[in-house]
Amino acid sequence: MAGRRQLERIMEIDRQIRAGKYPNARQLAADLEVSERTIYQDREFLLERLGAPLAYDRQRGGWYYTDPTWVLPSVMVTEGELLAFFLSVEVARRYLGTAFEAPLRSAVAKITAGLKEQVAVDLEELRSAYAFATPPTVAVKEQLLLGLHRAIRERRQVRMHYYTASRDCWQTRVVEPYYLYNLRGDWYLIAFDHFRRQMRVFQTGRVDWWEVLPEGFERDPNFSVEEWLARAFQAERGEEEVEVAIRFDAYQARYIRERRWHATQQIEELPDGGLILRFRTGGLAEVRRWVMGYGSHAEVLAPEELRREVAAEARAVARLHARRRKPRKPSSLSQG
């Protein structure tokens, strides 16, 4: 993993040099969120291992190539690495959406064309050996994801016209984008919202139009996406964390044990083969919808507020299905 990260940094250093940006260790360390020492180690790797004609321009305060025709060596991959790359591309194509199929297939073609050695992997043949199920996802525009990616990288504010489903209304929001987050194929944006004055999560499929603004922003150095998501349940995050406890019967427990549902979860095994799943979150509305999907196999023990909401919803469902639907009368056709 460390080698992969270094490769990504070296490729970014090379990109900035070729773009005439004359990058230096201090600026690169800030951009890539690593230490200056790490950047200097990357510089030594470029010089000693890759033979890069790297030099320092004192007037511009950064690095450049004395031979602008020099290029990074061709990629060397093993059969296993190429297989892993193929699988990641196929999964990404389905999760990103069909609009990304062309650029992803182009990436495969470019990498295979740059190999110094032949490897025993036929990408087309692989497609006959692996199958992928596409989850139901919200349609999202390819250019929106690319624009948000650029705004995150360049730390630029974004103005967007956004549909809030819970209130059934459209609003124009200005946000400071931090992360793109994929959940079951749907893309969410984690950003600081100027309207709410706090970090929020936005479903990208609900963005009608957007623009990357020239105004920049400073990221909060104390913000941790891992800690922020740990307070959520799936895509929803409330204001205040509470402890949730759900009892699953013996039948459903065998499936609940297979997965990790939340970063804070704890499982208490019960004598009858069932279990109690406990975790802390603020996303109770999402928990309610999730629990109800298990029907009578799941019982909310805490908090009491969630238990009451599930009970009320269950009664409403029962009433809805207890209604007798009157059979439709066959339509009579007039005889001419």
Question: Secondary structure elements and their pairing?
Answer:
Elements: H1 2-18, H2 25-32, H3 36-49, E1 54-57, E2 62-65, H4 79-96, H5 101-113, H6 123-126, H7 142-154, E3 156-164, E4 169-183, E5 186-193, E6 198-203, E7 207-216, H8 225-230, E8 242-248, H9 250-256, E9 266-269, E10 275-281, H10 284-292, E11 298-302, H11 304-322
Antiparallel strand pairs: 1-2, 3-4, 3-7, 4-5, 5-6, 8-10, 8-11, 9-10
Describe it for me?
- The structure is a single chain.
- This protein has 336 residues and is of the alpha+beta class.
- It has 4 domains: 2-65, Arc Repressor Mutant, subunit A (Orthogonal Bundle); 79-126, no CATH class; 142-221, SH3 type barrels (Roll), CATH 2.30.30; 242-322.
- Helices cover 38% and strands 24% of the residues.
- The chain has helices at residues 2-18, 25-32, 36-49, 79-96, 101-113, 123-126, 142-154, 225-230, 250-256, 284-292, 304-322, and strands at 54-57, 62-65, 156-164, 169-183, 186-193, 198-203, 207-216, 242-248, 266-269, 275-281, 298-302.
- The protein has a 5-stranded antiparallel sheet. It has a 4-stranded antiparallel sheet with strand order 9-10-8-11. A two-stranded antiparallel sheet has the order 1-2.
- A hairpin with a 4-residue loop joins strand 5 (186-193) and strand 6 (198-203).
- Helix 2 (25-32) crosses helix 3 (36-49) and helix 10 crosses helix 11.
- The radius of gyration is 26 Å and the shape is elongated.
